[in-house]
């Protein structure tokens, strides 16, 4: 396996790759309606792509208020720390832009993953697109 790297993506230029990944994960696997998956915030968000070699395998976005979202990794690459690389890259970018704290809505099953990366649950469980979620916040800096 090639080394995984994460880069800033361009919503227009990289749109096909971002859509392919998010549609595979959220629409096909999790049955989220496509009209809920893609929203008006995509246009202004900072997008990220995780790549193995030159092949995009994961994506995430960062909103201007420090909200991280749409974190998705293709099924065949899960469990290989791609999510860690992706989220850490987004956190680093957010901190560089002084976007603190970072926030996200996590699917409940994924809370241990985000807790390991410094996020804490700050809400009761709620349904988003029919899937149990919690709000999480990360206030501290990345470990050195």
UniProtKB/TrEMBL annotation:
Residues 4-141 form the N-acetyltransferase domain. It comes from the Bacteria. Keywords: Acyltransferase, Transferase. GO terms for molecular function: acyltransferase activity, transferring groups other than amino-acyl groups. The keyword Amino-acid biosynthesis does not apply. It holds the Pfam family Acetyltransf_10. PANTHER family: AMINOALKYLPHOSPHONATE N-ACETYLTRANSFERASE-RELATED-RELATED. This is GNAT family N-acetyltransferase. It comes from Pseudomonas parafulva. The lineage of its organism: Bacteria, Pseudomonadati, Pseudomonadota, Gammaproteobacteria, Pseudomonadales.
């Amino acid at each position: 396996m090639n080394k995984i790297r994460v880069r800033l993506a361009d919503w227009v230029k990289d749109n096909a790759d971002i859509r392919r990944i998010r549609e595979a994960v959220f629409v096909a696997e999790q049955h989220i309606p496509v009209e809920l998956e893609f929203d008006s915030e995509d246009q202004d968000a900072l997008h990220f792509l995780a790549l193995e070699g030159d092949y995009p395998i994961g994506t995430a976005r960062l909103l201007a208020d420090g909200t991280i979202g749409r974190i998705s990794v293709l099924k065949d690459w899960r469990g290989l720390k791609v999510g860690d690389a992706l989220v850490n890259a987004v956190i680093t970018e957010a901190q560089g832009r002084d976007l603190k704290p970072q926030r996200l809505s996590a699917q409940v099953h994924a809370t241990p993953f985000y807790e390991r990366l410094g996020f804490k649950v700050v809400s009761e469980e709620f349904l988003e697109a029919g899937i149990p979620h919690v709000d999480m916040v990360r206030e501290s800096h990345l470990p050195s």
